[in-house]
């Protein structure tokens, strides 16, 4: 990876985390509750409660295509190295929509929670928000459905 690409990735990750961290209070039960606890009129929130099923990927390799499809068992080692190195996790649903897993709870990102599920299908319950073409996800809980590879085989049999 070139230095300028590396700097851009780090800048994007830091900005994403700052936006998410300061958009609501850390221990609030919901964005509305966080907004109401601030002084002054409550700002309008932009989120929805979601249940998403998809594959855990590292957002960079999947989005950029620099490592092929950026998913599945052949990408597990690279994806895990990227996530452990700080690249944001994402959940790719069956419509190829990427949800960047930006937060889990308080001031924590979701990478530690999701790293063990890279290249696995999961069901995630949380909050989703979309702004400026970017869809972010606050992960409340995760259910592992197993390696993504077995889902690819099932889809191929159906065709």
What would you say about this model in short?
This protein is α+β, with helices and mostly antiparallel strands and 159 residues long.
Q: Which terms would index this structure?
A:
five-stranded mixed β-barrel; about 160 residues; globular; 6 helices; alpha+beta
Structure write-up:
By secondary structure, this protein is an alpha+beta fold. The chain has one domain. The protein has helices spanning 3-23, 31-37, 59-64, 76-84, 111-114, 148-158; strands at 48-58, 89-93, 98-103, 120-131, 134-147. A five-stranded mixed barrel has the order 1-2-3-5-4. β4 (120-131) and β5 form a beta hairpin. The chain is globular and about 40 Å long.
Topology:
Elements: H1 3-23, H2 31-37, E1 48-58, H3 59-64, H4 76-84, E2 89-93, E3 98-103, H5 111-114, E4 120-131, E5 134-147, H6 148-158
Parallel strand pairs: 3-5
Antiparallel strand pairs: 1-2, 1-4, 2-3, 4-5
């Amino acid at each position: 990876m070139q230095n300028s690409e590396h700097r851009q990735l780090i800048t994007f990750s830091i900005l994403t985390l700052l936006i998410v961290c300061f958009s609501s209070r850390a221990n609030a039960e919901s964005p509305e509750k966080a907004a109401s606890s601030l002084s002054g009129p409550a700002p309008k929130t932009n989120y929805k409660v979601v249940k998403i099923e998809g594959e855990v990927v590292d957002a960079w390799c999947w989005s950029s295509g620099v490592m092929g499809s950026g998913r599945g068992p052949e990408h597990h080692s690279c994806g895990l190295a990227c996530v452990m190195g700080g690249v944001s996790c994402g959940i790719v649903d069956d419509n190829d929509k990427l949800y960047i897993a930006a937060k889990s709870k308080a001031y924590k990102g979701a990478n530690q929670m999701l790293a063990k599920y890279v290249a696995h299908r999961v069901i995630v319950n949380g909050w989703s928000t979309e702004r400026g073409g970017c869809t972010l996800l606050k992960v409340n809980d995760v259910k592992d459905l197993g390696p993504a590879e077995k889902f690819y085989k099932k889809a191929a049999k159906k065709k």
